[in-house]
Structure prediction request, 227 residues.
Amino acid sequence: MLKPLLAVCLAAAASTAAADTARGRLDAFARSLRAVSADFEQRVFDANDKPGKTTTGTLAVQAPRQLRWEVAKPYQQLVVADGMHVWIYDPDLEQVTVRNQGVEEAHSPLTVLTDVSQLDRDFAASEQGERDGLSWLRLKSKAREAEFDYADLGFACAEAGKSDCGGAVVFSRMIVKDTLGNRTETRYSNWQRNPDLPADRFRFTPPPGVDVIGEVKPEAEVHPIKD
Prediction:
């Protein structure tokens, strides 16, 4: 999975009954979304629950399968999924890794925010109840060789302390457990709904002088960019 996904409210029209479940809150949050951007804070725990360093940065997701994940601290790294290829740029190493973005790799849990139909098509979803003041929905990939064990998406009402969101829903956290037992916890903030993202936000050209590992294969199965 891409390296891979503190809450800011985003109002969305949804019935009270639907928003009482985690799936209902996802539907409310994602309604009419074509693109989103946010800040993130992420920490990885190994299989023994030992924490690594906290990383911070920004992300942007745009339908159908475009994603930009930019780490700012404590080091710099950029991941761009342009619909055809995945580019991983490490400035400190002066190195770029590129690989084809196939169908399975395009199935990041974050992309369901801009394409809820993908949820039922590519994931098995189950309610996980309330925890830490959030309503949790678990996604398990239907792919034959899934890149993660599960992803838990945590939602809350925009107004703290309320159980009835009234359509104003927050996507606050995501917890992903990989197939090796490592756990990645991400907190999101400063969500922007349908921002005007320029097309080059999801394009990447290796800077002059960097080493490029991998090769671009245009014959690969792709999801073309739609400007």
Notes: Residues 22-30 form the longest helix (9 residues). The helical segments are 16-19, 22-30, 117-122. The chain has three helices and 13 strands.
